[in-house]
Amino acid sequence: MADESISGNLKDLSLNRNGAVSKKSHLVVCFGEMLIDFIPTVSGVSLAEAPAFEKAPGGAPANVAVCISKLGGSSAFIGKVGDDEFGRMLADILKQNNVDNSGMRFDHDARTALAFITLTAEGEREFVFFRNPSADMLLRESELDEDLIKKATIFHYGSISLIDEPCRSTHLAAMDIAKRSGSILSYDPNLRLPLWPSEDAARSGIMSVWNLADIIKISEDEISFLTGADDPNDDEVVLKRLFHPNLKLLLVTEGSAGCRYYTKEFKGRVNSIKVKAVDTTGAGDAFTGGVLKCLASDASLYQDEKRLREAIFFANVSAALTVTGRGGIPSLPTQDAVERTLAEVTA
Asked: How far is CA 48 from each of CA 111, 128, 280, 284, 321, rounded to the nearest angstrom?
């Protein structure tokens, strides 16, 4: 059963315009990697033991962009793929999902990134990446669509695009354009240790842009990694080590348990709903997409705890529905699916 303190207008949450509305177009621009995930057809086996794999479009920033669109919002994706069949397929998938793909670029010399994902019996994941280098690592500042970035109400990104040059410098330039144009900066570190040269490099790289973000979404495991703390549930650890002075909203996802939230004025947690998990790929991105979709149309959301809790529950349901399917983008729910579930659990 849903958290009883969250009730009322959940069904109409996605249409809420009662708060302060951005003077922009409610557009969320997502920057970073888009790739092909290869998902084993059976769970609980190693990559070597998997009898076959299904290909699924993925990449955290692209997942978020598609999620926002499927939930009725407006989104665009900026990144680079190979000028190959996989890259063209990914561009088409964005277009099919009503995501503006005009900021995508195609590399003639590097391939689209691939990731092979093993699933435990519980649907948890391990990754093996093929990107040496892949096209997403090679996006250059001269290839940025500055006009598209300037239109963003929210500019969202991860940390994978901070690992290698020239993409790192391009990422920083895009953040600067967005910040100067008045966009809200949204950051999901999305830790993928195998892609970094070392653990120290990962911590340093992730934290290098930490204090620039207005909104940060992080998992419990990432808290432990970044702070070295034994207990990621310790509010003092979170607030002293991770909540910087300019941060508007810090979200800590707890998987099937839900999410904790921290602002300058209040903190709390919101439960999720119970589902049978098939594949957790894309769940965090579905959560992020749900929150950003609501925030893009209600820019003061983080100042009103009741509305924020409603938005987080909306996002929790989006994530929960995602884990009931296989793959990232293919499993992202529609606005209708989320609203039907909200109606059921709050009836």
From this structure: 23, 12, 21, 27, 29
Say what the pLDDT of residue 299 is.
86
Q: Say which residues have a Cβ less than 8 Å from residue 80's Cβ, sequence separation at least 6.
A: 104, 105, 106, 107, 135, 136, 138, 139, 143, 167
CA 23 to chain CA centroid, Å, is 24
Residue (of 115, 113, 168, 120) closest to 136 by Cα position: 113
List residues bridging with 29 in a β-sheet: 76, 155
Token digits of residue 19: 């708060």
> Per-residue pLDDT tens for 188-236?
999 999 999 999 999 999 999 999 999 999 999 999 999 987 788 889 8
Q: How many CA atoms does the CB half-sphere of 219 hold within 13 Å?
A: 13
CA distance 318 to 312: 10
Residue 12 contacts by C-beta under 8 Å, 6 or more apart in sequence?
none
Q: CB–CB of 58/37 below 8 Å? A: yes
Ranges of H-type helices in the chain: 60-70, 85-96, 146-150, 167-180, 199-207, 220-227, 235-241, 283-296, 305-322, 335-345
So what's the pLDDT on residue 228?
A: 86
Give the position of tokens 């006009």.
Answer: 147
Q: Sign of torsion, CA 63 64 68 71?
A: positive
Pick from 293, 316, 324, 340: which is nearest to 2 by CA? 316
Buried b or exposed e, range 269-305, using 16+ CB within 10 angstroms:
ebbbbeeebbbbbbbbbbbbbbbbbbbbbbbebbbbb
Neighbours of 228 (CB within 10 A): 10
